[in-house]
Amino acid sequence: MNSSGVLLDTGPIVGLLSQDDSTHARAKALFAECTPPFRCCEAVIAEACFLINKVHSDGPAEVISLGRKGFYEVSLPLAENWNPVETLLRKYKGQPISLADACLIRCAEIYKEARILTFDSDFRIYRWAKNKKFEILSA
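^ thats the sequence. predicted structure below, dont judge the formating
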């Protein structure tokens, strides 16, 4: 079992909450191997709420409920990280980087945490602290 503090991207949240999602079983297996709370950012939560609302009208409330229950914590105040996040967005402008991705890279730098729950293959390309690779946890 992994310790808490693992970074959390959008896909596994949506997969966990949507039984009809093709990644549901994979997401359940991943979360079973890790200990909450997970670290994420408001951009990840906003993306998860937006995506799950397309398939489940109560989904956004369920995403927020997970946070209220301590499943994840919002670990990056964007207002304190404008410059580094902007730098990351510019660095990876040739990739399909989102604000959530840039914020998670910044979380890795702040918390020295390379482990991430994601279904996004771009995290194999992204580097934190200039040259450190992410450890993508997968089931």
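The longest strand covers residues 38-40.
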